[in-house]
Amino acid sequence: MAERRRPAVSAALSGLTLAALVVLVFALPRALPGDPLAALDDPTSGVAITDPELRERVLAHYGLDQPLPEQFAGYVGGLATGDLGWSIARNAPVSGLVAAHLPWTLLLMGPALLLSTAASYVLGILAAWHRGRTGDRVALVGLTALRAIPEYVLATLLLIAFAVLLPVLPVGGARTPFAEHGSGLAALADVGAHLVLPLATLTLSLTATLFLLQRHTVVAVLGADHMLLAEAKGLPLRRRQFVHAGRSALLPLLTAVGLQVAFAAQGAVFVEAVFAYPGMGSLLLEAVAARDYPVLEGAFLVLALVVLAVNLLVDLAARWVDPRSAAS
Amino acid sequence: MSLASAPVLDLAGLTVTYPGPPPVRAVDDLDLRLAPGRCLGVLGESGSGKTSLAKALLGLLPEARVEGRLRLAGRDLAGLDEAGWQAVRWRRLALVPQSTASLHPALSIGAQIAEPLRVHEGLARGEASARAAAALEDVGLGAAALERTPEELSGGQRRLALLAMALVLDPEVVVLDEPTAGLDLLSRARVLALLGRIRAAGTALLLITHDLDALRGLADDVAVLYRGWLAERGPAARVLDDPRAPFTWGLANAVPTLGDVKDLRGIRGAPPEPGEVVQGCPFLERCTQAVAACEQRRPPLVAPEGEDGARLVACARGGRVPVLRARGLAKAYRPRRGGRRRGEVAAVDDVSLEVGEGEAVGLVGPTGAGKSTLGQLLVRLVEPDAGSVELEGRDLLAARGADLAALRRRAQLLFQDPYEALSPRLSVAEAVREPLDVAGVGTPAERDAEVAGVLAEVRLPSSPAFAERRAHELSGGQLQRVALARALVLRPKLLVADESVAMLDPSEQTKLLALLRDLQVERGMAMVVVSHDLAVVLRVADRVVVLDEGRIVEEATGAELLAAPQHPLTAELLAAAGRPGALLGERSLARQAR
Asked: Which residues of B fall within a CB distance of 8 Å from A234?
């Protein structure tokens, strides 16, 4: 069992992570080939600037004429005052863009993590309990196969199946454009319908990994002495499965969920792209295409902070689940 | 049988078979009964099927085939469905498992003890918790343990928590699997007292344990399991204090007890592998008194000869057999001077002695008490004036000719001074081979092999150079071993050792005593150890006979002698042996001085 750290050490480590994150978030977009003003150089783009003096002024306006250390200092200075910068491509504040896109991603990621955790908890226990039987084998083979399929392929398959061949769900977006909903409830239902496919994709791909782990842990727990005693105590089956076996497996599962958060964020980006879901993924994708450094920086930073925050929540949950992990 | 003693638990022909390959019969045709308010002890080695028995009682063996009758308060449990078992488990029949890992590692002790109350009795959280606290107080752990997790408790405390958990629903039967293992003596005493109380309140206890002392204090009846098979069953006092099945005897000798200075002995060999199908007696390979009949079929449970049937033993020979049975032996020396008889000196006067298979009896007494004479009478080195000696059921004194020669080979004497006992002209090999030559056993090559084997058995070098040595070239310890090899080469059933370690230094003494004990475990022979030194005798002997002026003045186990010597002479001997606080002896010495 992983040793849990003391709060002070934990905070120091989080600080270091954050610092590294800020550097990476600044450096990575700049390591990409091209730059935000490439379009201005392209004579076919329609916004090409041929006047070198004007070009210099545009560069200076965005601070791109300065050496990298100074750009970094400016960036960090902005961060310190809560300013994420100004989008070059969209000509809008980055914080505003993130604020518009982040809720959709959270709406996708949060439920996907909760649902996949719950599903793998239950399925893992049931499969382990009936290990070797048909149900277990189907789940094992099916979810192992699912694990091998990238999210965007799965998303495309689901899209074709349920939005094209069997058009019961919307093809993309988060809301029906220009629709007037009679009530808030109808609007909510519309959001829900748009959420189904992206959420299903992300949940399924997260469940695949967690299920395998959960099944494995529970199989190991089944032979434990305390499981025999639980049966000797005449406890009902469900209680033995979901309280006694499940409780033992919950800590490893939660640890794995913590590790999965980053994958969930990454998965969300791909899934959003396929379903044209207006979350952080779509924002990032556009920003990458436009080499929109400030947006890339801001979006990456916020996503990374989300991952750290969720990890912290999982850590707290683990402490609550198993007092042993808080002891040391 | 009256209603009051109707068994709450009634097993008949209970058999548990784990499917193979090869199929393993963990519990084999077991008949047990347990009445309310009684305690049945189940004794056995590890792997003897005790845990399978406990699991079968709770229907926890879905992987095995359970056959036979299994009744709880008159109702058949065999064939119960899952719901039926759930109604029996814990409410009527609870378990204290052996493993302290049986507590859930992530749940608090309180939650785990309260769980049966909430599930079976539907109590609310607060009420269940209060009952759990009370249960923890009862076992002496205290309500503070409620909030702890098993990790925060010691092994002994976890055992107490498991006990509290088993008692929380007040079941009719509690199955306890090694409840005292790993407990300090104070906790152990507290647990035993608690078990005594709940037994007195009418709960039936099935106590599976190695702890013989616990069984002595708590069990009404004891059943001895060997390889899932009942070797002996009966009232606790009889089974534990006078075991008759060879296995029970061996087990009893292997258990350390307080107040006993006797060295422990194991049982030779190991039980058959699980899954091995045994035709005859399962204990056959490890038994030192096995005969051809033991290989034929499994012995049924029968009452030993001369008993009322309260105790049953499964042994084709009716239990441990007496090797030596001497009755009313008397020997007087009549000093003759010029044919004129003067006052007779009674060296041995009406002595009866029995030594069983694998048993060591110590003969102690002051010089001139008749110890050596008695030893010589037992092997018929001296003819008695009166009495009888039976060796393996045959009359030693009536035997003549070839019969006598064959019987003599079965009883050997080891003298005090090996230098006198061994001819200085013979080499080691010759001295050891001589008895074989005289008896005409086997071919010369076989005799040489036998000699090499027995020399190795007494842990002497087997090099040819050593075998060629003569008596004066050997140390005292080596000489005594050669003498021992010479005595053992004919595979005797009785060995009388007359002051055999007296001439050796303490280290050699210790080694020779340990060797004698090991040889006894391997060969199962009966031993009579004659010594003036009570300390030596207490180490080796299962039973001590105190002789004074040719008569037996006291006969008891070593523990009994140490605790409460009955005869003043015994007390004196204890005092002389450096037993501190043997006041009786000191007083009597003081008396003599006056």
From this structure: 85-91, 116, 119-120
pLDDT at A248 over 60: yes
Cα separation of B136 and B170, whole Å? 14
Which positions in chain B touch A229 (Cβ < 8 Å)? 95, 97, 102-103, 162
Please tell me the distance from the alpha carbon of residue B199 to that of residue B206, in angstroms, as a whole number. 10
- Chain segment A46-96, per-residue pLDDT in tens: 566 677 787 777 777 777 777 888 888 888 888 877 777 788 777 788 888
CB contact under 8 A, A228 and B103: no
Cα B8 to the center of its chain, rounded Å: 30
- Locate all alpha helices (DSSP H) within chain A, ordered by sequence: 7-31, 38-41, 52-62, 68-80, 94-129, 134-148, 151-159, 184-222, 225-232, 237-239, 246-275, 280-289, 293-321, 324-327
Contact between A35 and A41 under an 8 Å Cβ cutoff? The reply is: no
User: What phi and psi values does residue B81 have, to the nearest 5 degrees?
Assistant: -90, 180
Residue partners of B457: CB distance under 8 A and separation at least 6: B485, B488, B519, B522
Count of other CB atoms within 10 angstroms of residue B367? 7
- What is the reported pTM? 0.76
Name the amino acid, one letter, at B163: L
* List of residues 6+ apart from B367 with CB closer than 8 A: B532
Strand B301-302's sheet: what is its strand order?
Answer: B93-96, B173-177, B204-208, B39-44, B221-226, B229-235, B312-314, B301-302
* Chain B: residue whose CA lies nearest to A247: B106
Query: How far apart (Å, rounded) are the C-alpha atoms in residues A192 and A190?
Result: 5
Q: Give the Cβ contact number of residue A182 at 10 Å.
A: 7
Between B580 and B355, the higher pLDDT residue: B355
Domain ranges of chain A: 20-80, 95-327
B545: phi then psi, degrees, rounded to nearest 5:
-115, 125
For residue A205, give the nearest of A268, A282, A159 by alpha carbon.
Answer: A268
Whole-angstrom distance, CA of residue A143 vs CA of residue A137: 10
What are the pLDDT digits (tens) for B15-42? Answer: 988 887 788 888 888 899 999 999 999 9
| A225, A251, A327: residue with CB nearest B97 | A225
**Cα separation of A149 and A155, whole Å?**
10
Q: Is the pLDDT assigned to residue B3 strictly greater than 70?
A: no
Give tens-digit pLDDT for A130-179.
Answer: 988 998 999 999 999 988 888 889 989 998 988 888 887 887 777 777 77
Distance of residue A248 Cα from the nearest chain B Cα, in angstroms: 7
Query: Interface pTM (ipTM) of the complex?
Result: 0.72
User: What mean pLDDT is predicted for residues A265-278?
Assistant: 87
Structure tokens that stand for B431 in this block? 């001295």
Tens digits of residue pLDDT in B312-335? 888 878 788 888 999 999 998 876
Residue B391 CB contacts under 8 Å (≥ 6 apart), including other chains: B323, B324, B407, B410, B411, B493, B494
Least confident of A123-127, B481-485, B520-524: B520-524
Using a CB-CB cut-off of 8 Å, the residues of chain A touching B90 are 232-234
**Residue B95 forms contact with A (CB below 8 Å):** yes
Q: State the pairing for strand pair B360-364/B543-548.
A: parallel
Residue A150: name the closest of A283, A267, A256, A276 by CA: A267
* DSSP helix/strand/coil, B554: strand
Q: Which CATH superfamily is domain A95-327 in?
A: MetI-like (1.10.3720.10)
CB pairs under 8 A between A and B: 73
Tokens linked to A296 = 């890339």
Q: What is the pLDDT of residues B218-255, one digit of tens each?
A: 999 999 988 888 889 999 888 888 888 888 888 887 76
Neighbours of B464 (CB within 10 A): 9
